[in-house]
Amino acid sequence: MRLHPLTSLAAAGSTAVITTAAAYLPLSLAVIAAAAGLAAWAGTFRRLLPAAAAILVPLCLSLLVLHGLFFPEGITVLGEWGPARVTSEGLSFAVQRAAQLSAAVLALLVFSFSVSVPDLVAALSAKGVHGRFAFVLASTLTLLPAITSRLERIRQAQEARGLVIRRGILARAAAFRLQAVPLVSVLVEDAATRAAALDARGFGSTGPRTSYREVPDRPWEQMLRIVLLLAAAAAVAARLLQAGT
Amino acid sequence: MSSHSLTLPSTSPAAARKRRLLEILGALAIAGTYIYLVLNQPADITGGPGSASALIALSGFLAGAILLIVAVLPALPTSTLVLIPVALVLNIVLGQFVGSTLVPFYLDAIGTVLVAVLAGPGAGAATGALSSIVWSFFNPTVLPFAAGAALIGCLAGLAARYGLFRRFYLAPVAGFVTGIIGGVVSAPVAAFVFGGTSGVATGAIVSAFRSMGDSLLAAITKQALISDPMDKAIVFTAVAVLIYALPRRASLQFPFVRRHRVLAGKAPEQGA
User: Fold this and answer.
1) Mean pLDDT, residues B58-84
2) Residues of A in contact with B213 (CB under 8 A)
3) Cα separation, B131 vs A124, whole angstroms
4) Which fold has domain B15-39+49-259?
């Protein structure tokens, strides 16, 4: 059984908000484990792992270097090399922040790797979100592979005409120009054609619309969404009150 | 071309007023969040991760960006709207492409600035905010920067509106100034939500300032002041190159370009 796309979005979003608000290391680690387990269960773990690693590895490394070596507020010094001071406060700050960010990122990535984009778009328009936002979302996700392959073809064509990317900033900027100018010209032209075609089909008109695609929305999922949003709001309110006192 | 519908009623003044109100509210949310964060930062930053500031930065900036999208998106003509997905893909693809072949900058705003120059500040702001939201499908860490991206799109549109793209040497200057403002506004997000930066190279610069005893927000702001103006100057120059390489027929199809004479050269006759 598939969940309604907005239910999984609410689940991922409120998980991210609650882990950020709680700022509690065991909870962050539990969310990371749960996200990995969910991805493995849904069969998206293999695709998700490289995407998550590309984001999280530099982020965590940067945090460790930044706070592990330089944390002027730290008191307990574990080691010193010149200007760098390893403090236990800095290390624990880095580890906590890295775990918390990884939890939020993984929760959202599990959602975006498992959701069906046509269902999400249909659900958004059914909920009264402006059709234009759904158009931008769906159009971007479908254009991305098309434009990537187009850029590859332009590169091959320019290489056939003798383009060699040499070292040095000027040569690279010239190579960038040779590939970006044809790409952008053709994309702007295409967009103009698409605008005329969309207008001719009533894209700009206001008024009621019907959809070919029906996404079933069960009553218990609507209840679950409300509960999730309330939980996230409560977590934020609790954290703000705590900070206020 | 397809800017006005001939058969459908045009939008009422009440709807236009409502949109203007939403725009102002969005801008106020972003500005208010920034001022609050800067005023309240010293007590909070070492108070542990997940502090209230992270939540305030996230919710304030995100709410502002969403308000801007809601205000601007329904008012855009179709010819501009179909350009937005193209711009988002350009942000992602050219950003990665430049990252792998050119110098180590991020250059992830080329599409946003392109739309801003062709279609104006409002479209630029909406494109910047949408870019962050749609990109967060693949990389959730860009989501908190939506307000900064919207600001960069808006400033690029204003630069085009006041003719800074008419002279080739003015474009990098406008980019430099935009980078300063954008970097300063994005720094609290990096400091409070991420507790640092997302790249190892930028992290090294922040470390250098931290080792001199700066607070985290001060160190990240200084790092942003080093890398962002250069980055945006390169982006604005690249966009100027791209815009002038477009056939005039393609660039002059946008009413904003015609009305404000964004590009150098003879102004076309009205009603063409």
Assistant:
1) 87
2) 72
3) 18
4) Arp2/3 complex 21 kDa subunit ARPC3 (1.10.1760)
In this structure, chain A runs to a length of: 245
Closest residue on chain A to B245 (Cα): A181
Contacts made by residues B100-105, CB under 8 angstroms, sequence distance 24+: B101/A165, B101/A172, B101/A175, B101/A176, B102/A169, B102/A172, B102/A173, B102/A176, B103/A169, B103/A172, B104/B201, B105/B227, B105/B230, B105/B231, B105/B234
The partner residue sitting opposite A203, judged by closest CB among B78, B136, B137, is B78
CB contact under 8 A, A176 and B101: yes
CB B139 within 8 A of CB B168: no
- Identify the closest residue of chain B to A131 by CA–CA distance: B74
pLDDT tens per residue across span A82-137: 667 777 778 888 888 888 889 988 999 999 888 888 888 888 888 777 778 888 88
Choose the mutation target among A105, A150, A187 for the interface with B, i.e. most B CBs under 10 Å.
Answer: A187
| Domain residue ranges in chain A | 5-115+215-244, 123-200
Is pLDDT above 50 for A139?
A: yes
pLDDT one-digit tens code per residue, A28-72:
899 999 999 998 898 888 888 888 888 888 788 888 877 777 776
